[in-house]
Amino acid sequence: MASSCDSWLALSPQDGIVQSRFWQNKEQVESAVGGTYASLIDGLPEKMFILGEIRADMITTSFRITNNELDIINSNILPTNPLTDWRDFYRIINYSNTVIAFAPSVLDKDKTYTEVALKGHVAEAKAMRAWMYFYLVRLFGEVPLKLSATSSDDEIVPLPKNTKEEVLAQIVKDLEEAEKDIPTTYGNREKDHSRITKYMINALQADVYLWMEKPTEALAATNKVINSAKFGLVSNQERSLAWFNTIKAGNSNEGIFELAYGSDYTIRFINATYPFYAIFGSGASSGFRRYQATTYVTETLFTEDIIDPTNFDTRADEASLSTATGVITKYNRLSGDTPFNFIVYRYADVLLMKAEALALLNRGQEALDIVSQIRKRAWAIPQTEKSPDATNIDGTGGVLEYILEERAREFAFEGKRWFDMLRNAKRSNYKRIDLLIELTARSVPSERQQSAIAKIKDPNSHYLPIYQYEIQTNTLLVQNPFYK
């Protein structure tokens, strides 16, 4: 936390955010908010994907895997691993704090800047801050909670960690405050998907409340999105990939919030380079990929109909992956060099979060009906269909387990799997720790499984270590328990 102002704490002159000549008019506020999105898109999506998938059971090594990534896959996570560096998240938090701190001063300087516009900009910043802290609390557990802007080295002070409960309480507070003032629309679909709206906040609230084991609140949040009638599942009347490519291209009626690499809103601030080409390759560059699908995905999650090859799940072969080779195709270019959006939340996610909340409220049949709706759109095959007793909510083979499997198919390789598994495992004081044990047995090489399973049984191991550089430069930070 006490690193140089030239790293995560600084907003350099070209950012145009912390300058004496800045914060003079509404255009500069808009530029500052847009710069926050641009900085997010320029640096974080690759890390969001890796940290959301690499400890789970759906990706494994390929040609260009790095040693740091391999260590995590092998359950050998060390504080010296740069993938545990949280500075990218805190950089966005500081940008958000800066907007919250300085934007109000523009009201007196620019009479065309309205109170409504100010409240909207501050709401975007609070929601962005909450989203970043939600990543941090799920990845590291206890983290420093910094709510003030830092604009110079003189303002850097050591900070201790806050408890998970304190961080989550601030996330809830930020989202509740942001929801009151955030726009429901910015005038067109592209902007509505690439900027935070009320409905992105509602989707994030549902995610947060499920993590906090508050299904009533999660259900209410999902219903706000559903009852708006602004979103729906992209239609798939015939068994084809057209629906999948519509979502992939971005700005569909299913999208709620997307990191838009081709957006006019972000391209003004950065020359966006799509990060996933380097991870998975695309077309001729596929030999440069670092990851591919595990056999659990190709043989179990997306099993084949051997009798009738024309009967297939449209989320599988050539959509998310090649079941024959394990090559992940979800991030292949649609055409030429055209990038596509990285989907953060879409309507299917809201529906399956609602199903999870309903199940936790002992409304199992309603939850199963939603799963059936998702499967029908995908033309899911009978071989992956299960019929859990609607009263068996959280037992082996129960409703929650079925929802978890369906989330794996629907959101394959979208950076959600580890968080989904951990959320379900830790519920009710780790009642389903077996989910993580089975995950480890599926994903860790056989020669390392015994050690990895012993580690995963310790809840402290479910959080990453604090990067060693942060420990060395912040005297108030204490290393997470498992890594001392």
From TrEMBL:
Membrane as a keyword of this entry, yes or no, is yes
Q: Where in the cell is it found?
A: Cell outer membrane
The alphabetized UniProt keywords are:
Cell outer membrane, Membrane, Signal
Q: Which residues form the SusD-like N-terminal domain?
A: 55-210
Coarse class of the primary localization is: membrane
Q: Which residues form the RagB/SusD domain?
A: 337-483
Question: Pfam family example for this protein?
Answer: SusD-like_3
GO CC annotation terms, alphabetical? cell outer membrane
Family listed: Belongs to the SusD family.
Q: What is this protein called?
A: Starch-binding associating with outer membrane
This protein's species is Arcicella rosea
